[in-house]
Amino acid sequence: MPGSNKVNTVLIYIFNDQRIKNTDANKLCFTLCLILVLLITGINKLSAQACLPNFDFEKGNFDNWECLSGTIGQDGSLSLSPSGPVYGRHSIIKATADGRYDDYGDFFVNSPNGSTYCVKLGNNNVGAEAEQISYTFKVPADKNDYSIIFNYAVVFENPDHQIFEQPRFTSKVFDVTDNKYIPCGSFDFAASSGLPGFIQAGVSQRDGSEIYYKPWSSVTIKLVGYENHEVRLEFTTNDCSKRGHFGYAYIDVVNNCNTSLITGNVACAFTGSLTLTAPSGFAGYNWYNADFSNLLGSSNKLTLKPIPTIGTKIALEIIPYPGLGCIDTVYTTIKESPDTMHFNVYDSLRSCLPVGISLSNALLPTNSPGLNYQFYLDQQLENAVTSFFKITQSGVYYIRAENAVGCVDIKPVKLNIYPFPAFPVNNPKPVQAPETVNLNLATPDPSNTYSFWKDANATTTLSNVTKLGVGGVYYIKATNAFGCTAIKPVTVLIKSRVSMPNAFSPNTDGKNDVYKFTALGGIRDLQYFRIYNRLGQLVFSTTKYGEGWDGKIAGKLQDAGVYIWMAKATDWDGTSFMEQGSFVLVR
After folding, report:
1. How confident is the model at residue 260 (pLDDT cuts 50, 70, 90)?
2. What are 169's strand-pairing partners?
3. Topology of domain 266-337, CATH
4. Hey, do 266-337 and 496-585 end up sharing a CATH topology, with the first three levels equal?
5. Shortest CA distance to 211 belongs to which of 119, 79, 106?
6. What is the mean pLDDT of residues 483-512?
7. pTM, 2 dp
């Protein structure tokens, strides 16, 4: 019995405890029986509810998985050994908000079940590499009918090789207890143009070999009669045996915590119907009543209205694609809950490209606490996305909410995604200071409204845009009729003219207290600005345009008289120059 060692340990401890030797026998018996019941109940409860740790990679690593790597031989045989995760060959892929596509296949690398992590096994390097990941676990003792579901996608080069030399992806389930592979849990893909479900990519390799890919698909592995057996789930990829062509796969296992694969079976007070949902990605579905006398539906969803009698049992036959597992039958029972679930969404949301918007933004703060949300791109609820996935296409999307007792509700939300402003910017023609530039003429498209800024983040406004007298890189922000914005740079080139005062009076009266290098039109780069006294001693030096001398050295005011300045700079027109002159320090 699982956990019996823990029970025995407690009982031995109790009988060996000298403090209870004289305890009334009946009380002792009662105490022991109570402890035994509580322990067994607790252990069984934990066993029934336990999820396989990190079965679905949601820890973002390979904990509890074994990673192997090696090579494929000339005869097609694999040589693999434990290696731990090898960089670039055993890769954890985190779902991204932009839904990044595979480099060759026309599919998102994000897992379709909405999980945060999946695995990329292998890569597009060559060299006869082979990789494997495996997970070993024990089928629960009370699960005669146990099922595993996983999603996968595959990308192959397809060279003109014999079948045993081709790139390959395999999935297998090994019965460790009986030392044999389980047929229904195994399939094998070797690169070929005739593989069912595979699509030719729009690119090919230098040697002319074609690339084929299979977008995300689902497989169910039915383990009937394997209760209490130790089994191992294996996924393997390999390149071609001639070292010149690659193969890799994406994998994501569903951690169903030994619960039913069918959701939506709880009737709640606020609904008048039920929608049972099966795992997506299979070739076919058949819903039946308990004795299979009546076919209720043939899609991955079954809507029941009115709600059947509580306790009604529904059967679902899941039909895999040819060669991808065996037909599986799973069951669910209609349950009832008096719970009230408050779940509402905004009817519509709007956003702009390229930012997009997450479906989680549609959730109202008044919703019941503790709801579990799933977000979908389609009404069939087949293409799930993570909560931070950014939608960039207008349309109707769907949010599924479920509370702790299994009440389910589904709400649509309309997203309006508008384009960002596409507008031309014409850099003004170069001018000679003191001539100015009218920046309004840089934006000829009148369909937007414009504002002008000193920085790329549009935080500091630019004044005098019609008579701009200082060269530089500035920024134009366009706003279209939808309220979407875009920012582009504009370069203003002004040939500078040095304009230096011939005197200054550092008497802290707020007028002419600092002597600095000044050029009409501005300076892009100041190599140096230096000031010397009549003895030729350097009294001030800087490379920062706009910084000047306050008439002091080490805090001491200098004598009145004539001083010499020298400067080397480059203006916004790109012209480099050296200038010098003199001025008078006046007391």
Report:
1. low
2. 189, 237
3. Immunoglobulin-like (2.60.40)
4. yes
5. 106
6. 92
7. 0.63
